[in-house]
Amino acid sequence: MADFTLKLRRYDPDSGEAAYWQDFDVDMPPERSVLDGILKARADEDGSIAIRCSCRAAICGSCGVRVNGQSVLACNTKLSDAVRGSKQDGAIVVEPMGNMPVIKDLIVDMDAVHWKKVHRVVPWLLPEGEPPEREYIVDAEAMIDVTQSMACIQCGVCVSACLSMEVDPEFIGPAALAKAYRFVGDPRDAHTEERLNDLAEDEHGMYDCTHCFACIEVCPKDVAPMNQIMRLRRLATADYGIKDSNNGYGHEKAFVDIIRRWGTLHEAQLLPRSFGQGSLVQSQVQPAALKQLIDSAPTAARGLKSGKVSPWKVLFHKKLADQDQVRRIYDEIEGKDDRLELNLYIVGESEDDEGEDEEEGTE
Question: How far does Cα 335 stand from its chain's mean position?
């Protein structure tokens, strides 16, 4: 009996036939990768199996696939781990990445989606003035903030897992926005505000992210694209005060002000305040805000019908106990001159630090 069974999704556009599933049995040690298993099946049973790969060491980012529904690098996924995650009687299900058109078998068209969106964010430096005679010089400390986004290997795994792209294929996407932050946060770039304004005003831009954390969970290099998206938003709203037509600024301000005042989310006020750039009054007088509120009437009606929002909740919202303490926290943080961006990619706790903490705790 074979050690592992790979269930591959096969598709050949030249055949004119629909995609289908095909099983391959491979005898390999459990510590070998899913990519090793696919290449063995291709070498031993069917030379027409198509998969893109190169380094086999999670460096080049070529072998992105979905294993048991999870977007991964095939070379970075052990057969033993994959079989434990199987939901089909032990068979390891391998299919092409999502949110991108399939060229053949496990190969997707990265140019049509991934690279097109990366190019959309102008992925190169735009410095001011004439270039220096030699290279641009910056302090190492100035580049720490973008180190995490620079670790991206452009594998497209986060694009494959992005739930927002499933709903809106025009969404710029996590990989491109992480790349955008790499240049927005670079001290040598002279077009930070223009970049942020562009991403804020795009209806498929950085405010289209729904914080599902899927990109963070699947990233093989801990780039945490969603974190970079949140940094872009904080820069646009808090630092540059960009009041965009997509209500990203208004939604953030409304959310913060509501929590500061009541401690819990007042959903009846969140929607109108968001459309009014954070102000309930502005949403009642601005023509654009009024139109958006009218367009959202069916959503509000469903909320009333389901009981999620009631007339009583619209008029009255109970404050959190000890709400003064919540306000104190807000005032203390907002009173600081600089915003602390804690980059755990750089300053995360090491095993040695944890050991020292345990020793101190026992003394």
Answer: 30
DSSP string over 125-164 = ---SSSPPSS-----GGGGHHHHHHHT-----HHHHH-HH
Closest listed residue to residue 215, CA positions, set 139, 163, 282, 277: 163
Distance CA 301, CA 169 (A): 28
- 4-108 is classed CATH 3.20.20.330: no
Q: How far apart are CA 177 and CA 175, in angstroms?
A: 6
Q: What is the pLDDT of residues 225-257, one digit of tens each?
A: 999 999 999 999 999 999 999 999 999 999 999
CATH 3.10.20.30 domain span(s) along the chain:
4-108
pLDDT digits (tens, 9 = 90+) for 57-109: 999 999 999 999 999 999 999 999 999 999 888 999 999 999 999 999 999 99
CATH number listed for the domain at residues 111-130+137-239 = 1.10.1060.10
Q: What tokens appear for 174 in the block?
A: 């996590």
